[in-house]
Write a structure and sequence with these properties.
Blueprint: H1 10-47, E1 51-53, E2 56-60, E3 66-71, E4 74-76, E5 82-85, E6 88-93, E7 100-108, E8 110-113, E9 122-135, E10 141-155, E11 159-164, E12 167-172, E13 184-197, E14 208-219, H2 228-236, E15 240-250, E16 253-263, E17 269-278, H3 280-289, H4 295-308, E18 310-311, E19 318-327, E20 330-333, E21 336-340
Antiparallel strand pairs: 1-4, 2-3, 3-6, 4-5, 5-8, 6-7, 7-9, 8-9, 9-10, 10-11, 10-12, 11-13, 12-13, 13-14, 14-15, 15-16, 16-17, 17-19, 18-19, 19-20, 20-21
Helix pairs in contact: 3-4
C-alpha cells in the first residue's frame, strides 16, 4: 500500500521552487533589458538634439508583464516643431516577447505643434491613448495600432478647431523595403467617429462627420518628412496612395468608393476615384450657399446628376455611381466640372 509522507511532496516542491526562482530571475533579466532599451532611446534622442525629460521611472508588472511607468514625461523636438507633455506614460511588454510593446498615455496629454505649414501654432489634446508597436527581429518597425478615445485640436491654446470621438489608426510595412513601381511601402487603415469641425473654419460641407474610414497602401515612394521639398521628391518619384476602401458619412453626404490619389508637378492632388454617392443634391445646395459653386452651375449639375442616379432597392434613396477625377487642377464628377483644386502648401526645409 502506498503511504503518503512529507517526503512525497518534497520533490515536486523543490521542482516548483526551482522553476519559480528561475522565472523570477528571467523576469528581472527581461526587465533589465527593457530599462536598458528605454535608456538607449533617451540617449539617442539627446544626441539628435531632442530634449526628453521625466521625473521618475517605476518598474512593476511581475509576473505577467514588464511595465515601465514614466512619470511627468516631456519631449521637445530638435527644431521645436513639436512639444509633448503628460502626467504619465506606461510601456508594457510580455517578458517572453521582446518584439511587441504597448504604450499607454492615461488621461489627457498635450501636443504643441508648430512649423508644419499650418500657418498657426496648434495644440492637440488626446484622451485615453494606447499604441501597440510591433518590431521585426532586425529591430525595424513592423507595424503599429493607435487607439484614441477622444481628441481636441486647438488653434493656440483656447480656440477649438476640431474634435472627434474614437479614432483608430493601423500601420504595417514589409520587413524589407524595396523601392520601385508598384511596391507597397506602408499599408494604412483608419477610422474616425463623430468628427466635428469648428464653425470658424467655414467649411461648406463635412463640418460634422459621423464616420470616416479608409484602407490604403502608400506605393512607389515614401514621404520622408512634412516639407515642400519632401513632397516634391515624393511626387517626382511617382508616389501614390492606393485606396482600396473609402467611406465618408457626413449627413447628408454619404460616399463609398475606391481609387488613388497622387500629386501633379504643381503639388495639386490628382484624384481618380470611383464612388457611390448619396445626398448629392443636398451637398450641391450647401456648396452653392457657400459660393463654392455658382448657382447656375449647381442647378444644372443637380438636374443632370439626378438623371444619372439610380434608386437603391434597399432603401429607395437616390445613389449616384460616378468617377471622381481631377483634370488640370479641377475636380470633375463624371462629365461635370465641380471645383478647382489648390496646391498643397508645406513649409520649406530652410524655414
Amino acid at each position: 500500500m502506498f503511504k503518503i509522507t512529507s517526503r512525497t511532496f518534497l520533490g515536486p516542491f523543490l521542482l516548483l521552487s526551482m522553476v519559480a526562482a528561475g522565472y523570477s530571475a528571467y523576469w528581472f533579466y527581461a526587465a533589465g533589458k527593457a530599462e536598458e532599451k528605454f535608456s538607449n532611446i533617451v540617449k539617442v534622442s539627446l544626441t539628435e538634439g531632442h530634449l526628453f525629460s521625466f521625473s521618475d521611472v517605476l518598474l512593476d508588472g511581475f509576473p505577467h508583464l514588464v511595465r515601465l511607468k514614466i512619470k511627468n514625461p516631456s519631449l521637445r523636438t530638435a527644431l521645436k516643431q513639436l512639444r509633448w507633455e503628460g502626467s504619465e506614460a506606461i510601456i508594457e511588454m510580455q517578458p517572453w516577447d521582446f518584439w511587441k510593446y504597448r504604450i499607454t498615455l492615461p488621461g489627457t496629454h498635450r501636443f504643441d505643434i508648430s512649423r508644419f505649414g499650418f500657418g498657426v501654432p496648434l495644440t492637440y489634446k488626446p484622451t485615453g491613448t494606447s499604441v501597440l508597436v510591433r518590431l521585426f527581429t532586425n529591430g525595424r518597425l513592423a507595424g503599429s495600432n493607435v487607439h484614441v478615445e477622444t481628441s481636441r485640436l486647438f488653434e493656440g491654446v483656447k480656440d477649438l478647431l476640431a474634435s472627434a470621438g474614437k479614432m483608430q489608426l493601423n500601420l504595417a510595412q514589409p520587413e524589407t523595403r524595396g523601392m520601385g513601381a508598384g511596391k507597397t511601402l506602408v499599408s494604412i487603415s483608419s477610422q474616425v467617429e463623430n468628427l466635428e469641425i469648428s464653425k470658424a473654419l467655414k467649411m461648406p460641407i463635412g463640418r460634422k462627420t459621423q464616420k470616416l474610414q479608409f484602407v490604403a497602401d502608400l506605393t512607389n515612394a515614401s514621404l520622408s518628412e512634412l516639407t515642400h521639398e519632401a513632397l516634391q521628391e515624393w511626387q517626382t518619384a511617382g508616389g501614390l496612395v492606393d485606396i482600396s476602401w473609402l467611406n465618408i458619412e457626413s449627413t447628408p453626404l454619404v460616399l463609398q468608393g475606391r481609387g488613388s490619389v497622387g500629386l501633379d508637378p504643381q503639388l495639386r492632388p490628382v484624384v481618380s476615384v470611383t464612388a457611390d454617392i448619396r445626398g448629392f443634391s443636398e451637398t450641391l445646395m450647401a456648396l452653392e450657399q457657400s459660393k463654392v459653386v455658382a448657382p447656375d452651375a449647381a442647378a444644372a449639375l443637380r438636374v443632370a446628376l439626378t438623371v444619372l442616379a439610380k434608386t437603391s432597392p434597399q432603401d429607395g434613396e437616390k445613389v449616384l455611381s460616378v468617377p471622381l477625377n481631377t483634370r488640370n487642377g479641377e475636380l470633375w464628377i463624371g462629365p461635370f466640372q465641380l471645383l478647382k483644386i489648390m496646391p498643397i502648401n508645406l513649409p520649406s526645409r530652410s524655414d
